[in-house]
Amino acid sequence: MKKKYFFLLSVLLILITLMIFYMKQDLIKDCEISLNEDKQLQISFTKNRIGKYYCSFDDGQNWQKAENSICTNNLSDQSYNITLKNGLKTQIVGNNDNIGTYDLIVDEEKIYLSSEDYYQLNIRLEKTGYFFDELILDYDHNIIEIDDNYIIHPKSAGSTVINISFKDINKEIEVVCTDLIKAIPEQFDFERPCLDGSSISKEENILLDEILESRINEAGYHTRAGALAAARFLCLEFAYRLNYFFENGRVNWGVDGQGRYYHKGLYLNEYKIEDLYYDSSNSGPWGYKLYSHSAEEIERNGLDCSGFVTWVLFNAGYHCGDISAYELCETGDNRWDIVSLIDSNQIKAGDLVHNNELNSHIGIIIGIDEDYYYVAQSIWYGDSGVIITPYTKNEFISHWRSVVLMDEYYESDGNYTAMWK
Which pLDDT score is estimated for 203? Predict the structure, then answer.
């Protein structure tokens, strides 16, 4: 009898010992928590204890038996505890915090912004899994503010760098706020001041050239949209109006920069004179007072009609030459059947228009909506200068003699939009 009780007591002690052993073991040391090749949360067991391992990814509500010493679970954007069970031992060994994949995508590197405008940043945080880290934006609050929707609101002219960070990823966006450009209006602003020849410094001219180039590149260099970007920038975004100037000749006549500017960028400061093809000691930038041989009077330098269109095409990446309005008609398909072109919707923004005013006059269609064709042109009468004129369909038909379809010339539309807003 005593032997029987002794045996039962021994068994009980062994069971108690095993129970204590199980209860004291640290299951955290038994496993590794990681992300596997299939982008799943994985529990790998590194020790072979007595009994099977079970895993729970919902705080112990459901259990998964380890297969080949591994448990897996799809990533979740909700935080949860990871619980293990082995025999009598149940233990929380960790959680899914900061386990997953992530990437920070920022489309912009440099933004040029009017001091009176705003800009929607395109910031995308692509992540799978649960992360308690937040996206951090750091910048000069004296220059801009960024709201919760990542919209930039300028506060003053100047530049700042937006530092964007998430965990170990850092991206930067340079923002330049300036009064040299305006928020693009719905209609042409006739109240903008005209250039006077001394308005723009060399540094400002360089900045404006950078902005112009960026606008063209965004739309698509050497595309229809690139030509539209150049025309829209000069007519709508540049803070000044450009004067009309009767040309004193063209490059192929041995004259440069007087009513014409077949060069990249804007002719706004005297330092650009050194880039002219011919000695122009009597010349000056746009807005500078020059004697016009055609008008036989002193006027402020600017562009004539074909000078404007050739400037647009050249800055968009097309080498049409410093040519006349009539010659520009030959760059595309010059069509006189305007009514049929309108009825068949063949006319697009970026096509040219021509009539016989002052022997020959050229413009570029800068926008089309349901009611109007908007033509950017440099005119010498009325509200003279480089302006945008809206024409109803009937007005368009009666005013213009031909439309130059430019599909073959441009070859590509780029990021084309029929209207600027």
Answer: 97
